[in-house]
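Chain A, query sequence.
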Amino acid sequence: MCKKVNNQLNVMPCFRKLIPRGTLRKLYKAYILPHFYYCSSVWHFCGASDADKLEALNKRNLRFILGDYSSPYCSLLKKVNSTSLANKRVQNFLTLLYESLFFPHFPAYMKKMFSLRSSCYDLRGNNILSLCKPRTTSFGLTG
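Chain A, predicted structure.
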């Protein structure tokens, strides 16, 4: 994925003087951001170093598109009215969870992944997710 985004970003400097900043923002949102958002619920659980690489690549894209090489990442995100990739992955995952629980026409294989449990206690919410039981449990070093 990083390779695809890099290839698209490497084309843009050739046209930097021909394309206005507003159009570059639209190109960013139309052609670059979808690569970051595609299957984000699947690669949400990637390692920290991979997540950092994605955020650094997005920061590099924003710095080029906005022409701002000194502002922090959060202010760059505010300028394009966006959130960090990590926050967007959590949003997409929670949306997927909600849809799988409460939408009747959602695929059955996704509905089986999550289930609600009832509680005999008077809790704040009625909808409580049941946790799947682990198949194996091991603690410490195995010898």
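The radius of gyration is 21 Å. The longest strand covers residues 116-117.
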